[in-house]
Design brief:
With 354 residues, the protein is mostly beta strands. It contains one helix and 29 strands. The protein is globular and about 50 Å long.
Length: 354
Amino acid sequence: MSQMVNWTIFAICPVLFLLTAATMSQSLHAQNGQDSQSHAAAGNSQQESHGRFPELPQGITSFGAAVAGDFVYVYGGNHEDAHQYSRLGQSNELLRISLSNPAKWETLPEGPRMQGLGMVAYDGNLYRVGGFSARNESGEPQDLWSSNSFARFHVEENKWEELVPLPEPRSSHDAAMLGSTLYVVGGWSMQGDAETVWHKTAYAIDLAAGTLEWRKLPTPPFTRRAISIAPARGKIYVIGGMEPNGPTTKVAYYDPESNSWETGPHLPGEGMEGFGSAACWSNDQMFVSTYGGNVYQLNSAEDDWMKLATLEPGRFFHRMVPTASELVLVGGANMEIGRLRELDIVPLSTKNKP
């Protein structure tokens, strides 16, 4: 980047990117609704053309995404100017596109306007976890509220159903499945003018149980938001994010067998590499996509990361979802270009096995 980013931690103002206004106006340009239409192809041979997928209808950041059946689903997100949050600047749309016949994005039944949420797929349905909503209109003082909403989208019935709420409002967290259990880690709670509370809790819920009930996990040895989480070999990995004093590349994991937290291998690079990352699991391997455009794979010893690809441009506050043979990167933003509507593809093969 041509200019060094000047980081400021706002203790009260819960802005998503935590950048000074001067830097944001130059680097993550609002573009007045004009999102990135194209970007240069990377020189790395592992990157594949994404032309078979149509662009997102609009650029979004901090949304939920999951694969269920033959479809990639996307929910919510922010499409307003960076540093700006308002009711109409947040999406309430559930979109999907077919993997086998990706002709166009379909719009499904709407939900609440939300960003900073988690979304997973289980048993053919979608589960939306937390997030925050802006109650103010554009131009008004920001009034941001984290949510304890937990909802299921019945794909066959094409409708939403509210489930047992989270034990506490939560946003800027992430969620992942391991077997039939959904894990929720990280984030904070914003309640309007009240002081923002960083969460020091994590929860799990068995989606196969007859009665859905949240279970509190041992206290994580970290306080972070803007993380990504994913399962790997029977564990739940928590990758990077933002600590109260700045971005980090630290990694930790929860082991359900021992019911304990352990330290994992740091992501390569400096703190920004771990900020707003995206992670997923595919064919018993875990992958993470970072701010710098790097796609890493956790090695078999679970003590280091192998670089699988470098994409240009990099993106953060995006999502990465797996198919049987590739990783699909959706949405997010690049500091110099703005929001990205095009999808990136990273092919997987037997060579990806550590």
